[in-house]
Design brief:
The protein is of the alpha/beta class. It is 44% helix and 11% strand. It folds into 2 domains: 141 residues, HAD superfamily/HAD-like (Rossmann fold), CATH 3.40.50.1000; 67 residues, Putative phosphatase, domain 2 (DNA polymerase, domain 1, Orthogonal Bundle), CATH 1.10.150.240. The protein has 10 helices and 6 strands; from the N terminus they run E-H-H-H-H-H-E-H-E-H-E-H-E-H-E-H. Strands 3-2-1-4-5-6 form a 6-stranded parallel beta sheet, with helices on both faces. The radius of gyration is 17 Å and the shape is globular. Belongs to the HAD-like hydrolase superfamily. CbbY/CbbZ/Gph/YieH family. It comes from Frateuria terrea. One of its GO terms (molecular function) is metal ion binding.
Amino acid sequence: MSVSPPGLVIFDCDGVLVDSEPIANRVFARMLARQGLVLGDAQMDELFLGRTMTHCLALAAERLGRALPKDFEAEHDRRLFDALAAELVPVPGVMQVLDQLASPFCVATNGSPDKLRFSLAKVGLLPRFAGCLFSAAEVAQAKPAPDLFLHAARSMGASPAACVVVEDSPTGIAAGLAAGMRVLGFAGRTPAERLRAAGAHRVFTGMDELPALLGTGVAA
C-alpha cells in the first residue's frame, strides 16, 4: 500500500535525533540515589521517559515522600550538560534520513529550549532545524497533551492530518494521537511492544526503515 507524503514530519529530540536518554537516565538516577531513591534502568524509563523535568522532579519527590533539595535541579542540569558535552552522539542513521527528506520537518520536545539547542548543536544538527525548534515551554500543556504538536504544525503551516510524528515514548505517542496525527514509534531503545501498546500506527527499530515509512516524503 502506498503512503501519502507527509506535509510535515515532526521529530521528537531525545531518543529520536540524539542518543541522550541513557546519559540523562544515568545522571538523574545517580542523583536520586544520593537522596535515597534507588531506581533501575527499566524503572527510570517507565517513570520518566518523555516527560518534562518539572514532572520528573515532582514524581521523584512523591516517591521519596519529601521535597528534593532546593539546589537539586540546578546541580542536575550542570551534571547533565557536562555529560552531554562529553558523550552525546546523534541517533545512528538520522543524518542520512534528514539528507533524504523532501517534506518539511521540525523538532518538538518536552525538554527545555536550552537543552534542545545544546543537544542539537553538540551533534551538528542545529543548522538543519533553524527556525523550526519547538519546546513545551511554548505551550500551556506539555506532552502527552496535543498542544506542542498542534503548535508546531500551526507554526509550520501544516494541517494536523498531514503531519507525521516520530516518537520513542508512550508520552509522545499519546500527544501525537491526541493531535490527530500519524505516529511512527521508534524502538531504538524503547521496547517495541510499549510503543505498539501506546497506539503507534507503525513501529520501526532502525532509522534506515524510516524513509520507506514516509513514502514519497523523501528525495530521490
